[in-house]
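User: Batch of two.

Assistant: Item 1 of 2:
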Amino acid sequence: MSTIHAASAAPAAVATPDTGPVGGGNTVAVVLSNFVSSNTVVGARLQTGTGACAAYGTASASNLAATATKFDASTVNVVIPSGVVLGTTYRICIYGLASGTLLSTSTAIAQDDYTVVADVPVLSPTTGPAGGGNIITATGTAPYLTGTTTPAVLFSTATCPATYATPDATKILATTTRTDSVASITVPAGAVAPNTYYVCVYKGNTVGSSALIGGSSTTYTPGAPEVTLSGTTGPNAGGNTLTTTAAAFGDLSATALGVNFSTTACDTTYEDTSAAAAALAGPATRAGTTVTFTVPSGVLAPAEYNVCLYNGTTDETSALLAVGKGKYSVTLPDVTTSPNVGATATAKTITLTSASPILSGVSGPGVTFSVAACPSTYTATGSNFAGTTPKRITDTIGSVVVPTSVVLGSGATTAYNVCLYNGTAADSILLANAGTYTVAAQFTVDPNPIDLDGGPAQGGTLITVTGTGFPTGADAITASLGGAPLKNIKRTGSTTFTGVTTAHAPGMVNLSVTTAAGTIIRSNAFEYSYGITVQPNTAPSNTTRDIYVTGAGFLDLDFAEAGEPSANSEAHVYLVDGVYDATDTTPTEKDNPPVAECEAALVLSDTALLCSLNLEDKLIPATGLQIGGGGTPVPDGVYTVAVVNTGLAAAAAASASVTISASILTSGSTFTVSDY
């Protein structure tokens, strides 16, 4: 409600509202009970000054003509003219006549004061990115930009000056475009965090005289800029130093800044009051545009942190200055556990090994087993089970006994994280990324587990393995003989499973059985024999025929032809009349010597070779080691093929260390010499 002024006998009226924007165009209701009941046509003037209304008079800068309309006997609506001047107070004068030659003698019947004020445009948005460049709008409640061709806009850290002022560090000039009601403003690059700004719109850019026509009631806040940190990873519990550089730091008066490490978005003000925040807070020092700070001890794995820089260390007051680009995380070395599987509820010693000297200076490490992620500090309660007698062996190796509380859950296996700490106190810190240890149901393998003593080297033998607790499910059991895996493994009950042997070099081998609970080995459980097969297995006498021999262990043999230098000590493929006998009864004669040689043996793999069977030249019976000079062909008949590791006779070897062995022949190794 404005002050009411009376003049002559004219009654006083109330103008609502009694303020309005630059540019006019808004409507003011002038109200007084029954004061225009006898007037059909009314006129209005806005006159400068605080005196009583003068005569209707001629319109001028101090006596502005306004459009007036009688609404009812008590109300006249006045449209404020565009010529009103910011900051000027006008007397609204209502007249009984508004036309013709009687204008100069019209009598004022009501008056009230009306003041032109700067508009309060609405800013949208009120925040934006660091560095500016984005566009915001200042929308007026009236056409406050009418008649203003080139408005000027300042971003001011204080309330808007009444007239345009020279831009400086606290008043930053922005560029703008306009309609009558909306200024579209490009946020200047100089508007930076942690400042907040009033947005001030002026009629022009004449210092000291261009009037304020729009001033924001809310402030605009630039976002904190992202700055590049010298590192985004570091050791557990901090202590390392980071630096960052930004031009904005040079504009700050404070040389002591503040830093928070936060697992959530950076707060707008510095935090140092709560216990949690205190551990993640610290000072930072500035030298020119470079800021240096130490990572606080509360920065622990496995959390990731936002690095928040502030323009001081006053709790809840120092404003956010910058945010580190990207997350900061703790770098932990990896550890491997060996073995990494075991039976449920079974104490078992395992080692923890790292490529880094994680146990350097640690006399008594702490180890827990957890189905959840490793806590950042030592915790041995709830589902975190303390390992038994953890030890430091070297700087890179530790050991621990798996506690019997590490048990199988609801599934076939349960995996535990193995968590290594620098002690067992509550504040002991995590030293490494978790190793793993998986438990499953217990099983056993009998001392004499296989139903057969042995089988041929080329595999294919079906065996049954006995024990207890064998698990169900595809691939739940794997097994091997001397490293050669069993195939087609089938669980036939909790105490047995079957499998088919694969090729292996001849000899006694160990059985290895593995489930999710680990591996059990039984020594000397199976013997691979020297069995072979040949293709083709027939040829005419007095010919030479290439044959394909399959078996195992061929890569360990050095083949040569009979009669070549040192051939006696090398491997051979012989045709034998009956069963080859590697022994002899005299120093120069075998009991059953070979009758022919499969020459030029070419080893294709450990389980296959090619050779050329010479049926044209029968070997000399006296020794079986020399090619017959007379070219006597091998007679028709059924023979066997033998692969021998040496052509020496035992007595002639003159050494007990020489072991002469030959294939233990199978039916598949017979060879028939005959026309066909």
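Item 2 of 2:
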Amino acid sequence: MTKQQPITQKTASAVIQQIPLDALSISDLNPRTTVSKAHIESLADNIERFGLIHNLAGFMDADGNVGIVAGGCRLRALQRIAERSKNHSFQTVPVKLASSADEAEDWASAENAAREDMAPADEIRAFGRMKARNATVPEIALAFAVTEARVYQRLALAGLPDPVLDALAAGEIGLGTAKAFTLSDDEALTLSLLGQVKGQAVSEAAIKNALHPDAIKASDRRAKFVGVERYEAEGGIVTRDLFSEEIFLASPALLERLFGEALDTARAELVEAQGWAWAEARTEAWLNYYDLDQMKLERVYPIEGELTETEAEEYDTLADLANGGVLDEDGEARLSELQTILDGDYSEDQKAHAGCILVVDASGKVEVTAGLVRPDDKKAAVEAGILKAPQSTESDVPKSPYSQKLTTDMQAIRLASVQAAILTKPELVLDLLGFGLSDAAGSFDRIFGMRMDRPNNAPSIEDGFEAEPRLDHGIDASEYWQQGTRVEDLCAAFATYRDGTKKSRNATITEAIARTLPYHAGGQEFFALIETEAGADIRKHWTPTAENFFSRVSASYLVELMCEFLECSSNDERLIAFVKLKKGEKAEKMENLMTDATTQKLMGLTTDQKAKIDKWVPDCT
């Protein structure tokens, strides 16, 4: 090429010359000095297919060589085409020539400063094409003068279905919406949802929720407790969001199962390894202390430890260093050891009578509330000395479950059983009669009402009660004196009476005296002695039924009674089912437990439990 003369700015601005390719080189004024080989390869393919759409710009030196200040990548692509093929059509290249070096430098700066970023959809597709040609992320970043993080994010979007990218290019959805769609691996669902959100102001969160309505974030306490690795090892599906670094667990049922298993393992460790009598795992994130109060749990606390004199001095020294912020790692470990000693621990006896409740908190850590004593274990805990006996005051005394009328009925039933028993012990009756008439009994205590008083020995509700006929008063005891009969001819009556046998006479005396025995004759202790010697048994004459007893006490008392009969804890399934019954149903259930063999079998009563029920009487007699 011959030497060309400088041209004016006006001419340079208007004229684009065809310059031989081998006369072109990258000018030192060109600001882009580092380019990606993959980008050049991709650009070369593009130019071969579509031609050189934009001309280059440069400055011609005195030797006729042109230094390119704008279009350096295009020049490199053209040179690459020439290397790949001798039969190429780019022997000359259109170049806009600057009139001076200063103007060329202005062009170089202006082009790079005014360069407009590509639209997101175009950039996504461009990055995707380069990646398809095996370009690395650093190479793509260099080619487009962007950060590698941006390349990663755009490549994450490059796999979206074309309709999504088309909608992004057309402005029908935003970039955030497109990002949300990367969480989906179901193209049909993606396209269906795309049709609903085009042109709508829909949040990313709403789209993510629509794509994975049941997904659980890895930040969920259950996921933290189980561990994403364990979840994935069990076949759990995981979706990762590159844009927010969030992880979603798409198999909630699996996570729930693993969470339950992990909880049970933690619960078992408290019992088996740490030695607690019981442990209960709850699925809530925190423990409701109102529930603890309702469970009527008592609390025992760790036994505080003691430091030796040397350890105490060491503790003070380390604590001072820690407060000053100058304690090293070893010192912190030692201070922690000493603090553990001071905090103390639960004794084996405490653990044998108490238990724990554990939950998993919001951070995914196990939180244990220990030293809890259940109501069923309180008596044993008091006897073992790990729990103080409650100091009852008048206001602390629990309300009796028995009404006054029920108590009166039960006392009448007890009296009837004692009276019936002494009928079989004539000698005991005579001994008591003689003792009561003698000075040996004192002048104030009377065993029998010698006026032939007839104390009430029949309950107001006769259901389940079988009276001894020989103790029948004939008329109501309260009306005895008002309606008592008179014998007109006592002499004739006495003669007839004497015609009977001595056995008949003695039986009459025994029955009459027995009927006069009052409740708590001689006081509680003496009456109990008579009851024992006579071999009295209330259950020979009375069977507790729904009508005569169970419907007359509170529902809470029935629950306690059922727990006593079954010898079970408050967590027993049978007791839980019983608690859910209505009051009347509870009463009927208790009657059946007392009298029905089928019910006893279904409730799993043992032989000893049946025997206990057969002898049971309330403690209000």
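The chain has a mean pLDDT of 80.
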